[in-house]
Amino acid sequence: MSVNASTFYASLDAPVLKKFKYWQIRTIIGSMIGYAMYYFVRKNLSIAMPAMQSELGITKVQLGLFLTLHGLMYGVSKFANGFIGDRVNARYFMVIGLVLCAFCNIAFGFSSAVMAFGVLWVLNGWFQGMGFPPSARLLTHWVPPSELATKMSWWNASHSIGAGLVVIICGYVVSWGWEWCFYVPSAIALMGAIFLWFILRDTPRSVGLPEIEMAGAKKTGEKEDSKEYRKFLSKMVFRNPNIWYISIGNFFVYAMRYAILDWGPTLLKEWKGISIAHAGWMVAGFEFAGIAGMLTAGWATDKFFGGRGPRVCVICMLMATFFMSLFWGLDSPPVWLATMILMAAGFCIYGPQALVGIAAANMATKRAAATAGGFTGLFGYGSGLLSGVGLGLVAQKYGWGYGVASLIGIGVLGAIAFIFAWPAKAHGYETDETEDIKYEVG
């Protein structure tokens, strides 16, 4: 049986426990701020897009292609860097990635050719994949599995904090020129990288603290045998059907989420006639409501569902689909009502967005957490085929009404995918590494 949080904490002497709690909180907050900074140099493009269309003559299809290729590259990078992230110092990895993302954004702002935009945004997608794997490594080494859903839900607020703040900031600086949507966030991200360098460390062992050792998990610090480790990854990640189910569900979660986050300012400006500054606040509202959604979903997962995140994902996806149906079906609602509906959708969609990573980390155990997170991310960012160029094509050819309608079908398909993972166990720490993985029902 795995060691739960209270048992682990009780095993520590008072001074050691105090130090562990200090570093645990410091690590969670530091990685939250760091990952929010990644969003500053990822989701700034959405505010710049309307100005780039009018000033540079770039079409929705071209912009959608940027989003799609960026997402695909990010998914591949997150997956590939997951292997690296399980093996290297999280502090170095996260800082280097953020600095490289900032440099790509600065170069993007100085560019004017469509080809240069595409190359730089795809390159940025690769460096963005260096953000989550070290975060997954940090959290699974510093937080016991019985607390992971709640504490990682708090950490996941970094997504909404970063994305929400950057669309607000860029909604104002875009009046100076679309280029400033890249210069200002890059400067903030570089300052964030300096902060990370001083605030983060790697595992508890790196600061002289005991590791959280779980039954069935290999002891931290033991030498990895490459053949044995590949077998472990195959069993816990690639041949784990529940990892596949939640990964497919993640595809549809990200399709709905990024459709609103990437295209929201353009959609609201063109479909509803809302100013870009106000549209930025509305999309930020979607993101900030998502923070409450994540925290609620994480709390409910631990409190009522025994850590079984996929069950909460089913409920959240059905509710998100309902609110997107309202947004699509109401003819010319007042701005306040449209904002409230978007916020309700954000509250619901960010539950699965947070829980997929938590479920993957717990199912694969801390030994393969970054790899499992990268695998689910590969599916999540592959959704750019739908939310990027796919939605851009639909909007350009048929209008935004059809574009929003397509999100309803996406929500239904996501709920179905998570239903298949309903029987999954909460975590994989009790799995005997010499036997096949077994799942309990109920």
What is the compact description of this entry?
The chain is globular. 77% of the residues lie in helices and 0% in strands. The two termini are 18 Å apart.
Features of the shown structure:
442 residues, mainly alpha, Growth Hormone, Chain: A, disordered C terminus
Give structural notes.
By secondary structure, the chain is mainly α. It has one domain: Up-down Bundle (Growth Hormone, Chain: A). It has helices at about 5-10, 15-40, 45-55, 60-85, 90-110, 115-130, 130-140, 145-175, 180-200, 225-240, 240-270, 275-305, 310-330, 335-365, 370-380, 385-400, 400-420. Helix 11 (about 240-270) runs antiparallel to helix 14 and helix 13 packs antiparallel against helix 17 (about 400-420). The radius of gyration is 21 Å and the shape is globular. The two termini are about 20 Å apart.
Topology, element by element:
Blueprint: H1 5-10, H2 14-40, H3 45-56, H4 60-85, H5 90-109, H6 114-128, H7 132-142, H8 145-173, H9 180-199, H10 226-238, H11 241-272, H12 276-304, H13 309-329, H14 335-364, H15 369-382, H16 384-398, H17 400-420
Helix pairs in contact: 2-7, 2-8, 2-9, 3-11, 4-6, 4-7, 4-15, 4-16, 5-6, 5-7, 5-9, 7-15, 8-9, 8-12, 8-14, 11-12, 11-14, 11-15, 11-16, 11-17, 12-13, 12-14, 13-14, 13-17, 14-15, 16-17
What are the segments in which pLDDT stays under 50 over at least 5 consecutive residues?
220-224, 432-442
CATH architecture: Up-down Bundle
Could you tell me how far the N terminus lies from the C terminus, measured between alpha carbons in angstroms? 18 Å
Largest sheet: none
Q: Give the helix/strand class.
A: mainly alpha
Give the C-level CATH assignment.
Mainly Alpha
Figure out the total of helices. 17
CATH topology: Growth Hormone, Chain: A
Q: What's the SSE pattern? A: HHHHHHHHHHHHHHHHH
How many domains would you count in the coordinates?
A: 1
Strand composition percent: under 5%
- CATH homologous superfamily heading: MFS general substrate transporter like domains
User: What portion of residues is helical?
Assistant: over 70%
Q: Please state the overall shape, judged from the principal axes of the Cα atoms.
A: globular
Nearest-integer average pLDDT: 85
Number of strands: 0
Compute the CA-based radius of gyration. Answer: 21 Å
